[in-house]
From TrEMBL:
InterPro entries: NAD(P)-bd_dom (IPR016040), NAD(P)-bd_dom_sf (IPR036291). Keywords: Signal. It comes from the Eukaryota. Residues 50-249 form the NAD(P)-binding domain. Residues 1-23 form the signal peptide. This is NAD(P)-binding domain-containing protein.
Length: 281
């Protein structure tokens, strides 16, 4: 495997952006300014679960741009396209790359998950989701447990799992309107998310549970605030950047933690265009 030095956090500035919340801002350097660093990372092979999803597509696209190899699992490989947020004029074209292997399969089927781990995987990103009516009541928990079992068998340690603001002990970090949804129409999803988080926290793996605020398909801002109070919105492109750092940076500061992230301080909840991005109306 090719090794290279990657400056992930060398230029990270710590800013106290404070509205009604306390926040720490990461300002991530562009790859071109990566020169010296106290941090090393591999030109890694990263497994992405939920590969056709809007956040997963960002993870895959950005990893490939960064020289990494990616193995993705989705039930619908044909839905995998270049993402709107960081894809620019190429957005919506099929995402095809010699460093990308896409496996058609279901994460709730251990045999399908095992196919991913036939490759030499360095880190894992889980960006699963969907409506309960489509994915079932326990897909997140069952699927993530399958992934973590395979990781343990293969000795893969690092995992980033995208859950949500409001999950686990972040209930009070969800804006009021979102809390109402969590207790009503999203109740089953949040039961599954809470069980998924618990399994990850008890796994013994080097995990980062990433709890984003409202997701958008905007261009990456490059600013990712870890929020102690109520979180606002964040482009999926920025969530992806955070997840990639979580699996690639050996000194990632949030290993074993559950950061809530937002690219805006405070509580604004931006209506996103993800339905349009999926071609739904
Ligand atoms: N929307 C928001 O504002 C918001 C806010 C905070 C957190 N979140 C959470 O953030 C996460 C990512 O959201 P997103 O909108 O980027 O995701 P998304 O576009 O809904 O993608 C989720 C992906 O999971 C895959 N999936 C579902 N069941 C599967 C199965 N059995 N096997 C394999 N893959 C499966 C789906 O792919 P296939 O159907 O092709 O298999 C889908 O592409 C979700 O957990 C979401 O709840 C969302
Ligand atoms: C695939 O990744 C290798 C490094 O692992 C890189 O040298 C090569 O350019 C990449 N291929 C493409 C098509 O980007």
């Amino acid at each position: 495997m090719t090794m290279k030095l990657v400056a992930l956090l060398s230029a990270a500035a710590i800013l106290g952006i404070s509205t009604t919340t306390t926040a720490t801002a990461f300002i991530t350097p562009k790859p071109s300014v990566a020169v010296t660093s106290t941090t090393t990372a591999l030109d890694a092979t990263i497994a992405v679960f939920g590969a056709s999803g809007l956040t997963a597509q960002e993870c895959i696209y950005q990893a490939l741009k960064d020289g990494d190899k990616v193995v993705g699992l989705t039930r619908n490989p044909s839905k995998l396209v270049i993402p709107k947020g960081s894809g620019g004029v190429d957005a919506d074209k099929p995402l095809v790359d010699s460093n990308l292997t896409v496996i058609a399969g279901d994460v709730t089927n251990p045999a399908d998950v095992a196919k991913v781990f036939e490759n030499d995987i360095d880190g894992v990103i889980v960006a699963l989701g969907g409506k309960t009516s489509d994915v079932g009541d326990t897909m997140l928990t069952v699927g993530t447990n399958n992934i973590m079992s395979a990781m343990k068998q293969k000795g893969v340690k690092r995992i980033a799992v995208v859950t949500s603001i409001g999950a686990g002990n972040s209930k009070d970090q969800a804006p009021f309107a979102f809390k109402i949804l969590m207790m009503t129409v999203m109740k089953k999803i949040f039961t599954d998310k809470n069980n998924q988080e618990k399994a990850v926290q008890e796994s013994g793996l080097e995990y980062c549970i990433v709890r984003p605020g409202g997701l958008t398909v905007e261009k990456p801002t490059g600013v990712i605030n870890v929020i102690d109070g109520e979180a606002g919105s964040i482009p999926r492109a920025d969530v992806a950047q955070f997840c990639l750092e979580a699996v690639k940076d050996v000194n990632f500061p949030y290993v074993g933690q559950t950061p809530c992230i937002s690219s805006v301080g405070g509580t604004s909840w931006v209506k996103d265009r993800s339905k349009a991005a999926r071609g739904e109306q």
